[in-house]
């Protein structure tokens, strides 16, 4: 499993305090893959990672998705992530879907105040 998430086998004997944030995230992914799931639920998978490591972890998830045929449900507040990895998007507000569809269309046609507030900090939407 460690090979599958691009980690060396020597990490199997290390304690969590000895691992970086990216290594910990990859181990969590390996543990989830051990059950041979049809879908992974990724709740804020990059929120505690720096930008470079976050990009690497997202790339890993995308490669695993393609290679293993696993569906991924990403839960995130980061619409930069959404715009780069999601084919379809649902925007929730107070537990209700306020907009859903093809990601490009959802992001282009934002009119509800909640999703608009999420997008405003993204430089390429300004």
Please describe what this structure looks like.
Residues 5-47 form the ABC transporter domain. It comes from Agrobacterium deltaense NCPPB 1641. GO terms for molecular function: ATP binding; ATP hydrolysis activity. The structure is a single chain. This protein has 126 residues and is α+β, with helices and mostly antiparallel strands. The chain folds into 2 domains: 1-76, Rossmann fold (3-Layer(aba) Sandwich); 77-126, no CATH class. The chain has helices at residues 21-33, 51-68, 79-85, 103-108, 113-119, and strands spanning 39-43, 71-75, 88-93, 96-102. The strands form 2 sheets. Strands 1-2 form a two-stranded parallel sheet. Strands 3-4 form a two-stranded antiparallel sheet. Strand 3 and strand 4 form a beta hairpin. Helix 1 (21-33) runs parallel beside helix 2 (51-68). The longest helix is centred in the middle third of the chain and has 18 residues, at 51-68.
Give a topology summary.
Layout: H1 21-33, E1 39-43, H2 51-68, E2 71-75, H3 79-85, E3 88-93, E4 96-102, H4 103-108, H5 113-119
Parallel strand pairs: 1-2
Antiparallel strand pairs: 3-4
Strands ordered across the widest β-sheet = 1-2
**Gap from first CA to last CA:** 42 Å
Global shape: elongated
CATH superfamily membership of the largest domain, which one? P-loop containing nucleotide triphosphate hydrolases
Number of helices: 5
| Helix content class | 40-55%
Briefly note the structural class of the backbone: alpha+beta
Question: How many domain modules?
Answer: 2
Rg for CA atoms:
16 Å
GO molecular function, one term: ATP binding
Family: Belongs to the ABC transporter superfamily.
Pfam families: ABC_tran
InterPro entries: ABC_transp_ATP-bind, ABC_transporter-like_ATP-bd, P-loop_NTPase
């Amino acid at each position: 499993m460690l090979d599958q998430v691009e980690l060396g086998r020597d990490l199997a004997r290390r304690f969590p305090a000895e691992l970086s944030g990216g290594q910990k995230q990859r181990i969590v992914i390996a543990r989830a893959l051990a059950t041979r799931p049809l879908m992974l639920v990724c709740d804020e998978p990059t929120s505690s990672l720096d930008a470079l490591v976050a990009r690497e972890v997202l790339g890993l998830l995308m490669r695993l998705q393609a290679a293993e045929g696993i569906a991924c449900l990403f839960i995130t507040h980061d619409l930069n992530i959404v715009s780069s990895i999601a084919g379809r998007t649902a925007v929730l507000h107070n537990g209700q879907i306020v907009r859903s569809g093809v990601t490009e269309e959802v992001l282009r046609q934002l009119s509800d105040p909640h999703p608009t507030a999420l997008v405003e900090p993204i430089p390429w939407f300004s």
